[in-house]
Amino acid sequence: MSQSSHNPNAAAGPSPTFSPLYQQIKALITQSLQSGEWKPGELIPSEVELAARFKVSQGTVRKAIDELAAENLVSRRQGKGTFVSTHNEARAHFRFLRLVPDEGVPHHPDSKIVEVKRMRAPAEVARSLELKSGDAVVFIKRVLSFDGAPIIVEELWLPGLLFKGLTAERLDEYKGPMYGLFESEFGTRMIRATEKLRAVCADAAAAAFLGIAAGTPLLCAERVSYTYGDKAVELRRGLYLTEHHHYLNELS
Amino acid sequence: MSQSSHNPNAAAGPSPTFSPLYQQIKALITQSLQSGEWKPGELIPSEVELAARFKVSQGTVRKAIDELAAENLVSRRQGKGTFVSTHNEARAHFRFLRLVPDEGVPHHPDSKIVEVKRMRAPAEVARSLELKSGDAVVFIKRVLSFDGAPIIVEELWLPGLLFKGLTAERLDEYKGPMYGLFESEFGTRMIRATEKLRAVCADAAAAAFLGIAAGTPLLCAERVSYTYGDKAVELRRGLYLTEHHHYLNELS
DNA sequence: AAGTGGTCTAGACCACTTT
DNA sequence: AAGTGGTCTAGACCACTTC
Fold it and tell me: Residue A48 half-sphere exposure, CB side, CA atoms within 13 Å?
């Protein structure tokens, strides 16, 4: 098969928005990921199968999957196949949580739920989540402890429509990271986030939760998480005690 | 040419450490970058030329360059060629400086040098820069202002051997980011860094430089920068006033 | 042995830039 | 028109995993 015989861009007439074949294949694969045809942790069809399905060469499928792997949507394992990425694996636990101890190896913190409630989105939350002010949201507040010491207090807001049966009990029962619960129980997978970091002073409430004096400097991390299609689905504001921990960032 | 005829891994006997051809090509290209055969901002030979030089196919050179481009060591421009990356271009100004205003578009801050001196490396600095305690280092202290307001006070340490003629005058004269000066005047190009972020209280000295009250919370960013070969060549400690700015981080 | 992803090649054509 | 990187194909073989 020649390239032009299957590339619609090669049709007669000007092609206003050129899009390479492998990008179109990538979009099709992403759709199947988003629709749940292949679920987190599962094996997707082999490159040969996908090439046959889409009637393109294996090399084109390869390039599409290469980009999906670079974006952490799938992960390739030689000899086994290509798997849909999941937050329910040790490797992914520190992808979004960048706070690590100054000394020693990082490990997963204990989570203690303080509050879960449904409410109407305040204006600021609605803006971040691309909702209308007053739309239903789920509010969660919790404290995270490393080695028994409370280090993080965080509040988060989720669109009410996507997280209908979310209760404190289900959060407490779930072992592993919260994003794993969101993905396996609610079908919403976080794939990307942006964080804004600031230094603030602990107010009385935060100080009480963390067992420190009011006024202690805290690292404030405001995160907006996105799922497929760049849709915002979480606003989270965490206060990190950085006396014996730090936020680690790799610049490249 | 067949693959095996030029791949030393295919020689008789077991290959203990398999290394793909394109990785070897990538290493050769990186050597030429490091040695200064092609300088920052310059055009490197075309893929066809490099394929001929290394006696491999263009596709193999392509894959090597793809990875170098992904690591920001070079940048490709269709129709023009492949260029060595440089800090002396607007695009690179915010690669390492992640502090942006809460409102409005970011732009390059003004730098005011406070102090430049030569000294012996304190133990902590020596450890970060992989020097011996007491080795010569250059110490720089400066204040960065956005729109006339001082927002950052930072101190940095560089290996004395690599930055022999560095003076306050040369720093003051230079237009553009400090990394651009390092790269064009001292032949040391920063290609990667790790940062540790913490919240701290402003001490009297920092408060004076930033025109704020002592005790104001500041974001402390401790950065170690690396050049080719993962060699540490800079330790930098910045204090960021985050009342109207924030540290922006993309998680993916 | 069979199937998977990983590497390498050779050749064609496309899009973009410069001459 | 010529040269560059960008896309696509087809086929070969390698490394790894499973049966």
Answer: 1
CA–C1' B215–C4 (A): 59
**Cα(A246)–Cα(A100) distance, rounded to whole angstroms?**
6
CB atoms within 10 A of CB A170: 14
| Residue–nucleotide distance: A169 CA to C18 C1' (Å) | 67
Tell me if the domain spanning B94-247 has CATH number 3.40.1410.10. yes
Which nucleotide has the least CA–C1' distance to B9?
Answer: D14
Q: Give residue-wise pLDDT tens across range A79-100.
A: 999 999 999 998 899 999 999 9
Domain positions in chain A: 21-84, 94-247
Which residues of A touch chain B, with CB atoms under 8 Å apart?
70-72, 95-96, 98, 191-201, 215, 217-220, 222-223, 240, 242, 246-252
Mutation test of the interface with chain B: which of A71, A197, A242, choosing the one with the most B Cβ atoms within 10 A?
A: A197
Condensed to tens digits (0 to 9), the pLDDT of residues A10-58 reads 433 343 568 999 999 999 999 999 999 999 999 999 999 999 999 999 9
Q: Which CATH class is domain B21-84?
A: mainly alpha
